[in-house]
Amino acid sequence: MLVNYADAAHWPIDPTRQDLVEEMRASPRGPHSDDLRKLLHRMRWTGVGKRHVLIVLEPNRRWMLGRLPGRRGAPVETFPNRIFTSLAEAEWAVFVMRWEALTGQRLDDGTPAP
Predict the structure, then answer these.
(1) Which residues make Cβ contacts (< 8 Å) with residue 68, sequence separation at least 6?
(2) How many domains does the chain have?
(3) Stated pTM of the model
(4) Does residue 43 lie in a domain region?
(5) Long-range pairs for 24-29 at CB < 8 Å and ≥24 separation?
């Protein structure tokens, strides 16, 4: 069940919490602990624009990496070289990019940065 935490968008990210990274790596689609849910909520709602997102190319089959623009109405930046056929792999890739953006620490996901 999705729980909306009022303070989760301001929840501080502790880059030493590698347990949350490993939890996400092991199960990108969930279920997730309370702390990982708060972290994911923070990652999804941080700042305006420039957030990495997944664009559905074929429902339940293919996704492409995208990045939201800095202002409403501008086109979404797409990365045609970053196509995923597994939603779990796609979710993990976005987590890795958001983690680096918020903590300044790069996680090794085995793929080149966009």
Answers:
(1) 49, 50, 51, 53, 76, 77
(2) 1
(3) 0.80
(4) no
(5) 24/92, 24/95, 25/92, 28/87, 28/88, 28/89, 28/91, 28/92, 28/95, 29/87, 29/88, 29/91
Q: How confident is the model over 77-97, as a mean pLDDT?
A: 94
Residue 96 lies in a domain: yes
Distance CA 41, CA 50 (A): 16
Domain-located, residue 66 = yes
How much of the chain, in percent, has pLDDT values that exceed 90?
Answer: 50
Count of positions (residues) in the chain: 114
Domain that holds residue 81: 50-114
Contact 107, 96 (CB under 8 A): yes
27 part of a folded domain:
no
The string of pLDDT tens digits covering residues 17-43 is: 999 999 999 999 889 999 999 899 888
